[in-house]
Amino acid sequence: MTTLNNDYLIYQNYNSYIIMIRNYLKIAWRNILKNKVFSLINIIGLTIGLSAAFVIGLMIYYDATFDKFHKDGDRIYRVVTDLVSPEDVWSIPGVTLAMEDAIADNSNFETVSGFYTERPAKVENREADIKLKWPDFVIFTDPEYFDIFQYDFVSGKSAQVLSEPNQVILTESRAAEYFPKTSAEEIIGQTLIYNDSINVTVAGIVKNFEERTDIVFQEFISKPTVLQTRLRDNFLNKNWDNTNSASQLYVKTSEAANLDAIQNRFDALAKEHRSEEAKKYGDKQIFKLQPLADIHFNEDYGIYDWSRSQASRDLLFNLGLVALFLLLLGCINFINLNTAQATQRAKEIGIRKTLGSSRKQLIGQFMGETFLLVIISAILSVTLSKWLIKVFSDFVPEDLSFDLFGTPIIIFSIALLLIMVTFLSGFYPALVLSRFNTVSVLKNKLGAGEKKVGLRKFLTVFQFTIAQVFIIATLLVGKQINYVLNKDMGFKTEYIVSVFQPRAEQELSKKELFSEKLNRIPQ
User: Fold this and answer.
1) Nearest to 374 by CA among 424, 336, 319
2) 146, 307, 437 from 392: Cα distances, Å
């Protein structure tokens, strides 16, 4: 019987709580409708701040989640080179071809894999009469590459894959270009011809990475095949002084790796193989590890897809500050308007207190009003964000889409943000409004304390200061952009073109002949 009574009391308390919340929301909605102008101004201010926060937050999340899906990604590094001279420092994403052999037996590395990026002039599937000119994202690599970056094999996986010459692994998307309407199993064993002379057999098909990544390669040719290309001499005679961005080296460190010991080994190798000529001119090489997570943001070493702009940590940080200040402006605007409106609601508060409302209940009521306004602003902001992403499509990452709003972490972050905005915007006005003395209210003897007036003055000055900073910054940036777009460069840019030579062509005489023939053209 006691258990039943307890359950009934719990049910009654729960039911009362629900009724109280519902009444709070009803009264809040009535007050919003009653004060339409104030409510509209509050909603506009919060909507602008939340829209900026949503879009910029989405951009930060988009860039911050690149290459987060790789297994043991925190142990994957790219080995990069800084070429230092007395005049300058050049940052190169590649290393000398000799580096891979020099560190292969180091116990600090679990896996070492070098590859060479290349862009063939032409690739043919002659049976289907399909030709692709200058395909992107082609590399010569080894089996260890697939130990560091774990692709899902659709067909053809083998422990010996890419260990023999004239083998290639294709991603599903690239395989569909060479072998349209052909199943993965049927593609295995088919032949592709590179640059009219190198016959390569398809040994495997892998899925494209579905997550955001800068590891964008589509064709993986076995490294021994490189000896049949123009790069043969480079690979046979690995020169420590020959550093090329195309020669890339990735390592996966062991779980107990000592990063300081690795750097010491790199420094020792650079010192050991420093040429006499380099010593004469004061040049030196510095080898170091670049974390996989750093590749997307580090403009010194770059990414592999040059058609995409590189993300900038500084830019994202500054955009985050802009979003924060816009959000603060919306909250401060809300606080100022609601405290300014306090005298208009004084009688309502006095009557409520007379009828038995506690200060806690009044605070809950005012916070409920704030939350309702924030929710309305959030709904408008989500709709506005979709429009902003389209309008500013030239300034946001190409793959950034509105669909990211459905990501669980984004939903959780938005909910947390709305709670914080509700607290920041509503708590101080709720304290001020609920503090009115009943007798003073009913006698029309209201006054604001010096501290309260001082805080309101500070918030007002802060609000207008930040607004003016934004206006001035906008005008300055607008003038800079206008200057860049309209500045006379001293020549007609539309008549200047670049001419690229075939990569396989090394003879200087042919380049000179081409230049002579160009000079004979009057135009």
Assistant:
1) 424
2) 38, 18, 51
Phi/psi for 133 (5° steps) reads -100, 135
Distance CA(393)–CA(264), nearest Å, equals 46
Q: Are 302 and 246 in contact (CB under 8 A)?
A: no
Q: How far apart are CA 106 and CA 1, in angstroms?
A: 74
Neighbours of 230 (CB within 10 A): 14
- Half-sphere CA count of 499, side-chain side, radius 13 A: 6
- Write out the two tokens for 480: 């800079």
Determine the Cα–Cα distance for residues 243 and 99; give it in Å rounded to an integer: 10
Q: Half-sphere exposure of residue 83, counting CA atoms within 13 Å on the CB side?
A: 16
Residue 393 amino acid letter: S
The pLDDT tens digits for 471-515 are: 898 899 888 888 887 887 777 777 788 777 766 666 788 888 888
* C-alpha distances in Å from residue 234, one per residue of 95, 97, 159, 230, 449: 13, 8, 28, 9, 81
Other CB atoms within a 10 A radius of the CB of residue 30 amount to 11
Residue among 271, 249, 253, 272 at smallest CA distance from 262? 253
Cβ atoms of residues 149 and 186 within 8 Å:
no
User: Which residues are 202's β-sheet partners?
Assistant: 168
Quote the CA–CA distance of 116 and 111 in Å, as a whole number.
17
Ordered DSSP codes for 241-294: T-B-TTEEEEEEE-TT--HHHHHHHHHHHHHHT--HHHHHHT-EEEEEEEEGGG
Write out pLDDT tens, residues 376-435: 999 999 999 888 888 887 778 878 888 888 888 999 999 999 999 888 887 777 777 666
Token readout for 26 is 């009803």
Please state, in angstroms and rounded to a whole number, the distance separating the CA atoms of residues 189 and 196: 19
AA identity, residue 359: R
Question: Of 235, 237, 208, 211, which Cα lies nearest the Cα of 222?
Answer: 235
Which three-class secondary structure string do you get for 123-189? EEECCCCEEEECCCCEEEECCCHHHHCCCCEEECCCCCCCCCCCEEEEEHHHHHHHCCCCCHHHHCC
Q: How far is CA 185 from each of CA 30, 172, 205, 258, 432, rounded to the nearest angstrom?
A: 67, 12, 9, 43, 73
* Start-to-end C-alpha separation, the chain: 104
The reported pTM is 0.80
